[in-house]
């Protein structure tokens, strides 16, 4: 375990978050210091544990990591429901991740794991990362309907089934698929599905979800 004076928390974190982290540190018998100048603190504590505020981006983590290869840098992120946020922070060099909705006991476990050189992840996040071979392009913006169509393609749904699920005509679904081919650079809809699967969309073990028989797709 690190020496008590080597535990610091980003001063840009909210007062509520700093109070909560201080409570967790107290439970672990650590003293948690507030840090204003992150770079300077890491120079003075090259083997320390620094907890970054949610406002710090993966780019910020990467820049700090460049000058502090051995430090333990843990980022607090806003939303644990986005597995790719975890991937971006870990890829930038974060030693561990805490989400704001985690219980104090889980926060403590994450901090202790980071100090041991391990990464503790929520089970659902770990499962999602395990099937994502690459990240969806950051510039790709999809509507909720396009995202649903893409997921259904990965799950093997036919155009007729997709039309039923999303509530549009097959003609409209074909237009959506054509746009998805364009934005993903795919040759056909099967290539679209393969590309999306690499992003971790869909559940190939689950059959497509369709409406009950007799449902009539909306017409455009």
Tell me what you see in this structure.
This protein is an alpha/beta fold and 220 residues long. It is 47% helix and 10% strand. It folds into 2 domains: 4-131, Rossmann fold (3-Layer(aba) Sandwich); 133-220, Winged helix-like DNA-binding domain superfamily/Winged helix DNA-binding domain (Arc Repressor Mutant, subunit A, Orthogonal Bundle). It has 10 helices and 5 strands; from the N terminus they run βαβαβαβαβαααααα. Helix 4 links the parallel strand 4 and strand 5. The longest helix is centred in the C-terminal third of the chain and has 15 residues, at 170-184. The radius of gyration is 22 Å and the shape is elongated.
Layout of helices and strands:
Layout: E1 7-10, H1 15-27, E2 33-35, H2 38-44, E3 49-52, H3 58-66, E4 72-77, H4 83-92, E5 96-99, H5 104-115, H6 123-131, H7 144-154, H8 159-166, H9 170-184, H10 189-198
Parallel strand pairs: 1-2, 1-3, 3-4, 4-5
Tell me briefly what this model is.
This protein has 220 residues and is of the alpha/beta class.
């Amino acid at each position: 375990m690190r020496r008590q004076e080597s535990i610091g928390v980003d001063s840009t974190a909210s007062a509520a978050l700093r109070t909560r982290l201080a409570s967790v540190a107290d439970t672990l018998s650590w003293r948690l210091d507030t840090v204003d100048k992150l770079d300077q603190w890491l120079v003075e504590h090259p083997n320390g544990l620094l907890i970054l505020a949610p406002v710090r981006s993966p780019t910020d983590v990467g820049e700090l990591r460049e000058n502090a290869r051995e430090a333990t840098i843990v980022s607090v992120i806003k939303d644990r429901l986005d597995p790719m946020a975890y991937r971006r922070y870990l890829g930038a060099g974060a030693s561990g991740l805490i989400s704001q909705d985690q219980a104090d006991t889980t926060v403590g476990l994450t901090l202790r794991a980071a100090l041991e050189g391990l990464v503790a992840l929520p089970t659902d996040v770990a499962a999602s990362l395990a099937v994502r071979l690459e990240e969806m392009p950051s510039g790709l913006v999809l509507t909720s309907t396009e995202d649903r169509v893409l997921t259904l393609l990965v799950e093997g749904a036919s155009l007729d089934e997709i039309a039923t699920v999303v509530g549009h005509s097959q003609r409209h679904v074909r237009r959506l698929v054509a746009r998805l081919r364009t934005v993903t650079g795919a040759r056909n809809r099967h290539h679209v599905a393969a590309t999306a699967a690499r992003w971790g969309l869909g559940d190939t073990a689950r059959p497509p979800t369709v409406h009950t028989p007799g449902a009539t797709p909306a017409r455009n």
